[in-house]
Specification:
The complex is a heterodimer of chains A (492) and B (479).
Chain A (H helix, E strand, L loop, with lengths): L2 H18 L5 H25 L8 E9 L4 E7 L1 H20 L7 H20 L3 H10 L1 H11 L4 H30 L4 H7 L10 H15 L8 H8 L2 H11 L1 H14 L1 H27 L4 H20 L4 H32 L10 H4 L1 H15 L5 H14 L7 H27 L15 H19 L2 H15 L5
Antiparallel strand pairs in A: 1-2
Helix pairs in contact in A: 1-2, 1-4, 2-3, 2-4, 3-4, 3-11, 3-15, 3-21, 4-5, 4-6, 4-11, 5-7, 6-7, 7-9, 7-10, 9-12, 10-11, 10-14, 11-15, 12-14, 12-15, 13-14, 13-19, 14-15, 14-18, 14-19, 15-17, 15-18, 15-20, 15-21, 17-19, 17-20, 18-20
Chain B lengths: L6 H19 L3 H21 L17 H20 L4 H4 L3 H20 L3 H19 L5 H32 L4 H10 L5 H18 L7 H8 L2 H26 L4 H26 L5 H25 L6 H29 L10 H4 L1 H15 L5 H15 L3 H26 L13 H19 L2 H9 L6
Classes of the chains: A mainly alpha (492), B mainly alpha (479).
């Protein structure tokens, strides 16, 4: 078993231990959870260091036969994009364990589900076999359902069920698409599929039909307007740790799937339908941003801002050129860090003040100066201020989309989408103003600021945001070999 | 005579008689159970060790012992063992008919085993009737109003179904002058054109057989019967008799009606349409159920629909594809039913209600039972990493290969619908406040059955090839 498989399955092993040891106390389940989340983080940092950007193809591969009669294998491996997302997921996984150390309500079950969730997301990002990919994709539903429905707040049961049904609806189509692919090419193996291509093979379905079946599944997860309505509910009602995983890492599966499967295997269909998806991206950005402006609940606000920000990912992906794709990939990582930080901050804010309504806050910078700082940094990241990862990602997306000569109307879509930046500035700044500035309220006088632990994990995320923002090469160097061959499909 | 071919069936029938005789001599709960279990174990030993090299056409073609029937024999023996062990958790309510319950289960098992091997219309009919009559009695064993109503309903509709089936057999015989399945196939091959009588016969035959598997539009008996019957009998009906029903449809149609190709493709398409109706109706009607046994009845109907996809693939491929995945599906479904129902037996007996609301707070009252039941329900939903997912995957892949993409889209959307009502049970157990607290214990027999089958579900979900290999390597139905 290689280092990558170990990274994927360590959290699941932790979950198994927590679940299976009879009479395990809360203290020990915390320790096991910490270990099972910290080790994968160390391993993925090591993989990041050991990754060789000069070598082509996938690295740290593990492969053996799984179901020979349908030619499915256990095959995992990472390229630059997978690697960054694995790193992001293990970082956020570790942080969400730290965030929930104080969980009092059924801590054993909580940590078990959280770790299982991490395994399934890591599995999605590293699977090189479509069936394995789909299995990991589906497994994720179960822990998320339990996390939201039991440890959430508000209409948690409704939101959890809605989440499950939306996801299953999307993956139902995806499964049909994967089968279509399988009967066209005779394999589930992604590297083989890339090599052979689909163009000449006898097709079990029209390629465009397969493309759409697959992309529906990914579009639900990303989410793309009009399939986004599960997201605000799920994010808002989930417990902080689950919100961090959901917004930071899980919805990236959608963008990753489009990159890896829809663009990688269907270049002609992608080019043909690119205007449609650019238009949808534009609607997601503008509509998502406009709705965000009107939110009064702090978590719901961050959730809706994700709809808008994921629109940038879609815009970058379907600009079908090197710079746009790079921007989209950077946005996946950068949004993970920024939204992770926002949700972590919102979690602390809500926990310490017992309040989530934006209008009830005010002047908190006086009582919680550190949190105000953290929130400000996250907000400038979300607005795309230079120096943060959000800036470099969004600029690349817009440059790519604007110069996407092969896509009809790309300039118009880009220009309208640019208002998304303006909207982001508007909602982030007004939120900052309303919550942290202005006259201080005496009700919050005794509210505690960040503890040492909270400072620690917030600074991890802040470091990531500025590292990519100030020295983007740290990410683009590993992304380059993953993106260049794809971009060359459309001539650059 | 080649008696040794049916030694498993004989040992089951003998042990059934032995249970009754022993009960006359010395009524004892453990004696009845021991004889019954011993009979099943003996039959399993015979099935494993027997020499079945000369497979087709024993007893003048009445029975065929091939890989298909061998696989199903072992599956049915396993299920029956599970049912008998799990039913010990229901002993209090069946105390006064315990020996009869065990004996009739074995008689039903004899019938079902013969159903899997029957290769003549006459032996098929006899096997079906042995099974059905045993079940009529078992369903009514509680002797209360609901149980009697369930039994009567099943008997009346079942009687009509048998009559229709018999009429169909007569028409087929009239058209082909044969009752042996291979003789029918030869006669059809010699016909210049398929006659109206033959098609009508096939139609009635299918209708009668679909009753056994509870497919739409012959499913109406299932919910009432499942609800009124003693829970172990419900389990037996849904896990075993449904399998036997699907098995005999597969055998009769692939053997007798696989030539010429357009005839085979015709019933393949008919099966596809019935499959779409069955799973959709089953799932939609399950949505509003509040009684756990009725809900599982509708969910079982939906699963009949999924299995009919496999039948449809058999038709479209003239029996050359899809057998292994159908066998795998049957095994996965059976395991899930065993897990779920053995827990339902314990819970409903403990709470004295069949309502789903009674399951509230189970995750706190017994984490183990909650975990087992969840594994079973996730497998029925078809979520990985359970056997149910792999089973659906194999069935679906076969169907896509034979141009049934439209059916697969309907099927996967049905899976989403089914997730809703399975999750409702999980939600009740996981979130709702229990009416009474206090620990609940799974019970010895039921607990063992549930643990073993849940473990098998997870094992087959992660490494499906362990069983699929076996299904693929068996010598299957020879068209």
């Amino acid at each position: 078993m290689g280092i990558l498989s170990l990274t994927i399955f360590l959290p699941a092993l932790g979950a198994l231990l927590i679940g299976a040891i009879p009479g395990l106390g809360a203290r020990f389940s915390r320790l096991i959870a910490l270990a099972a989340a910290a080790l994968p983080l160390c391993l993925s940092v090591y993989m990041f260091a050991a990754y060789d950007p000069a070598a082509a193809g996938f690295q740290f591969e593990d492969m053996f036969r799984w179901i020979p009669s349908i030619n499915a294998g256990y095959h995992v491996g990472v390229d630059g994009l997978s690697l960054l997302l694995v790193l992001l997921t293990s970082l956020l996984g570790f942080i969400s364990v730290l965030v929930s150390l104080k969980t009092e309500h059924r801590p054993r079950a909580f940590f078990a589900w959280l770790l299982l969730l991490e395994t399934s997301i890591l599995g999605v990002f590293s699977s090189l076999d479509l069936l394995l990919f789909f299995v990991f994709w589906e497994i994720e539903v179960i822990p998320m359902y339990f996390l939201i429905s039991n440890w959430g707040s508000g209409r948690k049961e409704y939101s959890a069920l809605k989440y499950v049904l939306y996801t299953l609806f999307g993956s139902a189509f995806m499964l049909a698409g994967i089968m279509g692919l399988y009967f066209t090419a005779g394999t589930f193996n992604l590297p083989e599929l890339y090599q052979a291509g689909l163009g000449l093979a006898a097709q079990s379905l029209p390629l465009a039909a397969m493309f759409f079946l697959l992309i529906i599944g990914f579009a639900v997860k990303l989410p793309v307007f009009p399939l986004h309505t599960w997201l605000p509910d799920a994010h808002t009602d989930a417990p902080t740790a689950a919100s961090i995983m959901l917004a930071g890492s899980l919805i990236k599966m959608g963008g990753y799937g489009i990159f890896r499967i829809c663009l990688g295997l269907f270049p002609d269909q992608a080019a043909h339908f690119a205007p449609l998806f650019m238009a949808l991206a534009m609607v997601s950005i503008v509509y998502g941003g406009a709705i965000t402006l009107r939110q009064t609940d702090i978590k719901r606000l961050i959730a809706y801002s994700s709809v808008s920000h994921m629109g940038f990912v879609l815009l970058g992906l379907f600009s079908l050129n090197y710079i746009g794709l790079t921007g989209a990939c950077l946005q996946l990582v950068s949004h993970g860090l920024i939204t992770g930080l926002l949700f972590a901050g919102a979690g602390i804010l809500m926990h310490n003040t017992h309040e989530r309504h934006i209008k009830k806050f005010g002047g908190l910078a006086r009582q919680m100066p550190v949190l105000a700082g953290v929130f400000t940094i996250a907000s400038i990241g979300a607005m795309g201020v230079p120096g943060t990862s959000g800036f470099i990602a969004e600029v690349s997306v817009f440059l790519g989309a604007f110069s996407a000569g092969s896509v009809t109307g790309s300039m118009m879509f880009t220009i309208i989408s640019l208002t998304g930046i303006l909207l982001a500035a508007a909602y982030m700044l007004t939120t900052l103003l309303k919550v942290f500035f202005g006259p201080a309220k005496t009700v919050f006088d005794s509210v505690a600021d960040l503890s040492r632990l909270e400072k620690f994990y917030c600074s991890l995320l802040i470091a990531g945001i500025f590292l990519i923002g100030l020295y983007p090469a740290v990410a683009t160097d590993v992304l380059e070999p993953a993106i260049a061959p794809l971009a060359s499909l459309w001539g650059g | 005579m080649n008696w040794h071919f049916i030694l498993p069936e004989i040992s089951i029938a003998v042990s059934a008689v032995a249970v009754i005789l022993a009960d006359i001599a010395k009524p004892n709960r453990w004696l009845s159970s021991t004889i019954a279990v011993a009979g099943i174990v003996t039959a399993a030993v015979f099935s494993f060790t027997g020499d079945y090299s000369q497979t087709a056409g024993v007893f003048n073609g009445m029975l065929t012992i091939d890989g298909w029937s061998q696989f199903l024999r072992l599956l049915l023996l396993g299920v029956s063992l599970g049912v008998l062990v799990a039913s010990t958790g229901y002993y209090q309510k069946l105390e006064y008919v315990w020996a009869e319950f065990n004996a009739l289960s074995l008689f039903a098992l004899t019938g079902m085993l013969l159903m899997c091997g029957a290769s003549d219309l006459i032996s098929a009919f006899i096997a079906i009737e042995i099974t059905a009559i045993s079940f009529f009695i078992m369903v009514g064993m509680l002797k209360d109003a609901r149980s009697s109503e369930a039994s009567l309903k099943m008997m009346l509709t079942g009687g009509i179904a048998s009559a229709i089936m018999l009429y169909g057999m007569a028409l087929v015989f009239g058209a082909t002058a044969g009752t042996r399945l291979d003789a029918i196939s030869l006669a059809i091959a010699g016909m210049p054109d398929s006659s109206a009588g033959l098609l009508l016969g096939m139609f009635f035959l299918l209708a009668g057989l679909l009753f056994e598997a509870a497919a739409v539009p012959f499913h109406m008996w299932a919910p009432d019967t499942y609800e009124g019957a003693p829970t172990p009998v419900t389990l037996y009906l849904s896990a075993a008799s449904k399998i036997a029903g699907i098995a005999i449809i597969a055998r009769v149609f692939t053997t007798a009606f696989s030539q010429p190709q357009n005839l085979s493709a015709d019933w393949g398409v008919v099966a596809a349409v019935i499959s779409a109706l069955t799973m959709t109706l089953g799932n939609v009607l399950a949505l509003s159920q509040t009684n756990i046994k009725r809900l599982l009845a509708y969910s079982g109907i939906a699963h009949t629909g999924y299995m009919l996809i496999g039948i449809s693939v058999l038709g479209l491929s003239q029996g050359s594809a899809g057998q292994a995945s159908l066998l795998f599906y049957m095994a996965a479904f059976t395991l899930a039913e065993l897990t779920v129902f053995s827990m339902v037996i314990v819970i409903t007996r403990h709470l004295k209600t069949d309502e789903i609301s009674g399951f509230a707070g189970l995750s706190r009252r017994s984490p183990l039972m909650f975990a087992l039941l969840s594994v079973g329900l996730f497998s029925l939903t078809g979520l990985p990493p359970t056997a149910g997912f792999m089973a659906k995957l194999f069935i679906f892949t076969g169907a896509v290969q034979h141009g049934l993409m439209w059916l697969i889209i309907i099927a996967v959307l049905n899976t989403v619908v089914s997730a809703y009502y399975y999750l409702r049970i999980i939600k009740a157990m996981w979130l709702d406040e229990p009416a009474e607290t206090g620990e609940m214990k799974p019970g010895r027999g039921t607990g063992v059955v549930a643990v073993v089958s849940a473990a098998a579900i997870l094992l087959l979900g992660i490494a499906p090839y362990l069983l699929l290999k076996l299904a693929e390597s068996s010598l299957l139905i020879q068209p």
